[in-house]
Amino acid sequence: MRLPTFTVAASSGLICLAYAKASEDSPYAYHETTVNNLGAPPADECFYDVTVPALLDMDYVKYAWIPLSKLSNESLAIAPHGAFVYKTTNDTLVYEAISLVPVDSPEADLVFGVSEPFCTAAKTFDEITSGEVNCSSDDEVTNERIRTGLNCWASPMSYQTEEPFVNYKKFAWVSADASKCGEFVYELKDGTGLVQHSCDGPDTNALPTDGVTDSTTATGAPSPCQTVKEHQLRVVQRLLAQPWHLLL
Ligand SMILES: *[C@@H]1O[C@H](CO)[C@@H](O)[C@H](O)[C@H]1NC(C)=O
Ligand SMILES: *[C@@H]1O[C@H](CO)[C@@H](O)[C@H](O)[C@H]1NC(C)=O
Ligand SMILES: *[C@@H]1O[C@H](CO)[C@@H](O)[C@H](O)[C@H]1NC(C)=O
Q1: Keywords in UniProt for this one (predicted)?
Q2: Interatomic CA distance for residues 167 and 170, integer angstroms
């Protein structure tokens, strides 16, 4: 099974990887595997709504991220990099373990782009969750969705020896926009601010910041998405080749 939002990203053609540049901005990818009960149900308020019709048709209505810091040792053996969990209409939880794989691996189910600034008005998660900073000046829904992610659950980094994670102190899954794939958001170790790695592609997920419209945050270069069609084709082929709907 795939993240519901992944299908959204693929179908809207937003995934774009060909622009990998400096290592500290490295893209990365996760493979997903359906696993047994990890025994770490997030609180109800931590779940985002599923938006992909194909998943809704199968009664998958909500999903949340589970960082490894919330997993028991026993569950960590099954899900060493954390998991996503889906809730069905009858409140059954279905766990999807995630594991880091090379971005060009055929097992790369969820691919995240280079780092981009996130909520530039804030330097820490706490400034946002405390209400001191609103990421968007006028979109209260976006602000609430960001707070949901940062409250549930921000987690210390664990695999700190690998780029790009070596520069990050803690992280959380955020779905700031229900129509997009989503993003992992990170607090930088050096205290200079927050960054996101989004599974939407670099130009499509910049958060509105006060008075700033910046579509070149990632590279400052011309659109790096020339090969997006080729990649999108690969994504669709992977989706079609994966009989995940038969596993449910
Ligand atoms: C989990 O594993 C870590 C490292 O191996 C160990 O230090 C810790 O005591 C274990 N926790 C439990 C509850 O067994
Ligand atoms: C609840 O939903 C899951 C997944 O759709 C299904 O496997 C399970 O049998 C259902 N349980 C009940 C009690 O209906
Ligand atoms: C953030 O937004 C809320 C709701 O619109 C508002 O009440 C609050 O004053 C804002 N906070 C700041 C620091 O602007």
Answers
A1: Signal, Transferase
A2: 10
User: Phi, psi at residue 5, to the nearest 5°?
Assistant: -70, -25
Overall average pLDDT of the 42-51 stretch: 94
Question: Please, what is the average pLDDT of the chain?
Answer: 76
Q: Which of 90, 94, 95 to mutate to test the pocket of ligand 2 (most atoms within 8 A of CB)?
A: 90
User: What value does the CA radius of gyration of the chain take, rounded to a whole number of Å?
Assistant: 17
52 C-alpha vs ligand 2 centroid, how far in Å?
A: 19
How far apart (Å, rounded) are the C-alpha atoms in residues 100 and 158? Answer: 13
| Predicted model pTM | 0.73
Single-letter amino acid code for the residue at 159: Y
**Could you read off the pLDDT of 136-181 as tens digits, one per residue?**
999 999 999 999 999 998 999 876 677 788 999 999 999 999 988 8
Closest-approaching ligand to the CA atom of 68 = 1
Give residue 74 CA to ligand 1 midpoint distance, Å. Answer: 9
| CA of 132, closest atom in ligand 3 | 13
Question: pLDDT, tens digit, for every residue of 20-37?
Answer: 333 456 888 999 999 999
Name the percent of the chain in helix, strand, coil, to the closest 5.
25, 25, 50
